[in-house]
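Figure S4 source data
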Amino acid sequence: YDTFNKVDIRVGTVISVKKNEKARKPSLVIEVDFGKEIGIKKSSAQITDYYNKENLQGKQVIGVCNFPEKNIAGVVSQFLVLGSIDKEGKVILLHPSQKSEDGLPIA
């Protein structure tokens, strides 16, 4: 449990979505508002099988906010968006079952 508590997992709302043109595998660059304490963070994610700008903009997602930044195909990825991976390797994003306040921690 102490190890789990070290990971800062929060709910946030997707505020912008665009293709990562430099990525070798199809990817989206998403900006997510994690509330006043965390702010807006950007990430590049291989989530194009089920998601695009139309169905992702305004959606709430779950992300890890305290991993070190990582350069992914020219994008400084500031958080890790969480999802399950189906048997075909496609990502299904995790999200709250009802509207939540941005920035709320996941426990």
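Figure S5 source data
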Amino acid sequence: MSRVFDRVKETTSTSGTGDITLSGAVTSFQSFSSVLSVGDGTFYAIVDSTSGLWETGIGTYSANNTLSRTTVLESSNNGNIVNFTAGTKQVFMTYPASQSITSGTSIALSIALG
């Protein structure tokens, strides 16, 4: 199960397609380590505003200050894992639209539950 908390955002300078090393919370935000334990899953987004590269997915907080990119849900690379270049990027918790209950699902749930 993926955990989501409000106002969790850090920076990273990690490049490539591997695990993300988290560099600390952005001012007025929480760190991943303040709300997750090693082994916890979460929804995440990574954004490189300089290059325009981005990715959303399901990740695992796999070690202290490390987020493993377990499953990519959407990305600027046609839904595949993004090969991020050097430089600072933002990493934050999010609730991806593809994982949310849509209005069509809500109607089905309403009918099923009465």
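The mean pLDDT is 91. The CA atoms of residues 20 and 67 lie 5 Å apart.
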